[in-house]
Amino acid sequence: CFHQPAKVGQVLEVEYQVLDANFGNMEMQQNMDINFVLKSPTGEELIKEQSRTEAIHRHEVKEPGDHTMCFDNSMSTVSSKTVYFEVYVDKTGGGSQEEDEWDGGDIPYSPELVYNDTYKDIKATIKKVHENLNQVTHYQDTKRAHEARDRNVQEHNFTRVNQFSMLVIVVMLVVGAVQVIMVRSLFEERSRLRKIFQYLS
Fold it and tell me: Where do transmembrane segments lie in this chain (predicted)?
């Protein structure tokens, strides 16, 4: 379980996805589902999901305090799972500390320093850039998580293909050896296999 503090009016966004699932030390792809629970500071279950591989949730905070996020893998007693998750708190509703830092009081400006963009315009522009950068970071993390999951699936498939190829090679060698032994035995007078064929014919 993980805990995230939030204030009333803020929006708590939780995103998670299962990247990998292994059956012990064996290269076997298992069920990639897990259970997820989001609890309020008082212990009330706000969101409860079962057997999900990935999901995105947005919850408007109504109780201040630490919200609990729990990931449950009890359905798989042997296999272990790798889970990527990200928690984002939208501070628009409850106000942010960054806005308070800009309101530092009245700053005297001389007429020479007054430009076309006012103080409020600059503040709004910087805030917008900050939000866009946060979104870019979020998208990059999501893409990296998808890439990691796809890479794990490819590695499992590569291992399976190699194992199946080795099995096919062994079967071909055994069949070839049996064929050689049978053909040679047909031309040997003392061969038991030749006597059996002669008896059947």
Answer: 164-187
